[in-house]
Amino acid sequence: PGCPAGAGEEEGGMSRKQAAKARPAGGKKAQRPRPPPATLGLGGLAGQLQALGLKLREVPGDGNCLFRALGDQLEGHSRNHLKHRQETVDYMIKQREDFEPFVEDDVPFEKHITNLAKPGTFAGNDAIVAFARNHEMNVVIHQPNAPLWQIRGTDKSNARELHIAYRYGEHYDSVRRINDDSEAPAYLQMEMLCKNDSKEEKEIKPQKDEYEDEIEDEMEDAVQKVCNATGCLDIDLINQILKVENYNVESAIFATIQVNEVKRISAEEEGDSQDKGPKSCSSALWEENGSGSRIFGKQSMHQDKMENKGEGRCDEENGASK
Fold first, then answer.
1. Which UniProt keywords are listed (predicted)?
2. Which of 72, 233, 250, 286 could be stapled to 304 by a disulfide with Cβ–Cβ 3.0 to 4.6 Å?
């Protein structure tokens, strides 16, 4: 006989034998600690579900959690968990050849089924497969830091999906839309969740435009600050200087003042040249206290003096030749 879909595979570290495990013989219920609330932090499973617009609807950890969670999905509440348990057991008995190979080797099928029928007995993968096939639905299992696990109960393309969560290696909860606090049946589809995911990504895109607008505003503000500090109205020049100075406003202000000073002095020199005729090489611009020295340093002044000395020698030689 074939393996029930999903029943023979490991799920989140739960082996098929653990999944099929019933409570111990003798009628004693396995004592399982109640899992901590899912609301502790937004990491892990709670964060994964929130990203899909979903949340956990917790059910008691009393050994009936699987059938409570499936019942909440199917009917909108978990009060009929005993009924769902019995129907699942009945289906497994009818389809014994599908499920018997996956019971623990040392546990007879009859004993496994007898224990599984008792309230409070932990149920695993084989019960999920039986429930899904009996109702001709697909069961989707959400687990922390793991892909969605789907157990198919039918090949119908429009089959209903029941979404449950599996955590702590032993507990099941129901999964609901984040704003669903009703007692109506849950109708979740993986296809719709994927579309919602895509829609959220599209809605995030405008944020990129807002970010670009914010950067543009900051650049305009930087230009305005440089304008106010320097009196320069050449916006293109200021933009170029800001780019060179890596948009450091203070550095851009200093550089703009330098450029303006050089332009002003050059304009004055040009005006003086036109009014007074050609000047000697020793321009006031490069005197020790001149603006050229202040802006560009004494290296230029030193170079100019060397040129002046050379020119003086030329004059002396010309005078001697005469």
1. Acetylation, Cytoplasm, Hydrolase, Nucleus, Protease, Thiol protease, Ubl conjugation pathway
2. 286
* Location of structure tokens 């059910």: 59
pTM, full prediction = 0.52
Give the active site residue among 142, 171, 173, 304.
171
**Selected catalytic residue, list 65, 98, 163, 232:** 65
Distance CA 145, CA 302 (A): 72
Q: Could you say which of 3, 62, 77, 272 is catalytic?
A: 62
Exposure of 304 in the CB half-sphere (CA atoms within 13 A): 18
- Please determine, for residue 94, whether its predicted confidence score (pLDDT) is greater than 90: yes
CA atoms 149, 60, 57, 41: torsion sign: negative
Architecture of the domain delimited by 16-188: Alpha-Beta Complex (3.90)
Residue 171 falls in the annotated catalytic set: yes
Q: How far apart are CA 54 and CA 46, in angstroms?
A: 8
